[in-house]
Amino acid sequence: MAINLKTSSVETREQRLGTIIGWDGAASSLAEESAFSRGDCASCGSSRGAKARRVCELQGPFTQGSVCSEQMVECQAGNVRDAVLVQHSPIGCGAGQVIYNSIYRNGLAMRGLPVQNIRFVSTNLRERDMVYGGAEKLDRAIRAAFDRHRPNAIFIATSCASGIIGDDVESVARACEADLGVPVIPLHCEGFKSKHWSTGFDATQHGILRQIVRRNPTRKQDDLINVINLWGTDVFTPMLKELGLRVNYVVDMATVEELAQMSEAAATVSFCYTLGTYLAAALEQDYGVPQVKAPQPYGFAGTDAWLRELARVTGREALAEDYIAREHARVKPLLAALRPKLKGLKGYVATGSAYAHGMVGVLRELDVEVDGSLVFHHDPVYDSEDPRQDSLGHLVETYGDVKHFTVGNRQQYQFYNLLQRVKPDFIIIRHNGLAPLAARLGIPAIPLGDEHHALGYQGMVNLGESILAVLQHRKFHQDIAGRVRLPYKASWLAEPDPFALARLATV
């Protein structure tokens, strides 16, 4: 699937991949309907030659709340250490920066990097600007950001407001770049352009690929690996050191120079294909940096395959086999001690799409039952179209089906019904807005703020220990459930189908 870096605006995931945000059924059915790159999808008429896979989608009549593409630009471009993000938006669009600043500071501390605050400027578009335009305001904001912070790059995040009034952000950026002598990078991420926030990841990466990554590097670093991640602890450095490799973490908490050198790396990997699909594919297509095409590094099967493919790409097969054997010998006794304590428990995963596929696999490695999972969107295919990256197919084929597998955009009213039909002992969640509802049902949550917590061989042990720890608080959550009421009508509380309103709307 060709990626077009000649245009300034990234294609949305709906256009490119056929992304959906509403579906309910068995995981095996979704894998079959998606067809990934394994053949035609007879049920919906999609063929391998189509630009985007078409999967039947349930569309609800309203949305309680979610996040948007611009917020993903905030937490990516806004977290480049020596850059500045200018949000060309009303000031309210920057409200999310409060929590992103906390996450950014914690991430820097976990990595042993100097702790600092994020650096962003809002153009604070107001009613007058919506009538007369905000281009001059954007120009002033960019120059003020440069004078104040002297960054090595300036990112511009567009917004619904700037998109509606049609400001010529490109012209302003070019003029400022010529005057200031640093890249000034427009990131077109208007919230109304895409129904899922993951397009915002692609928008940030699109701008970086176009204006920061070195086009014609004078050298190649044969031991350097691009690792596309967020803010998690540094688990990749000790893993890849065993293969004689160095880590180049991108995009969050990287410097502009570290982003520029991505074209010099030997390969690109990611902890989650949802996050890394666009950047990794474009680096391979336009810069000749191969992406590692293998299952994600979760559980024994995924981690083994991931390490072996990375070793094959970098010519380190013997080192990888030695490391795999040592880690199996170390971890298997630890898991043997954990499994009897976890057997019979029922877990539920509510996270981003590809990440959830990995988490379910790890739970199954621990002998935890998983009858249900909620993913916040679904990409029927990733940009490589390589079946080795079919994370949902890998889950079903390696660990078995998930009976109640739901695609939903973080809707509170649906989450109640989803949990009621599965009745888990605990949930695993990354976007914590749904966790309070679980608590009101007496279900404790494991919030994976560190996205690397369950990654690799040690990750299985980490997650098992976290489950045992959170279950110590089960009585507390049961007490909460006994003393609170949910704000829904009795008819909805008795409804077994979380998509009943969507089905009614299509009748």
From TrEMBL:
Pfam families: Oxidored_nitro. GO terms for molecular function: nitrogenase activity. It comes from the Bacteria. Residues 77-471 form the Nitrogenase/oxidoreductase component domain. Keywords: Oxidoreductase. Its EC number is 1.18.6.1. SUPFAM superfamilies: Helical backbone' metal receptor. This is Nitrogenase (Molybdenum-iron) alpha chain. It comes from Blastochloris viridis (Rhodopseudomonas viridis). The gene is nifD_1.
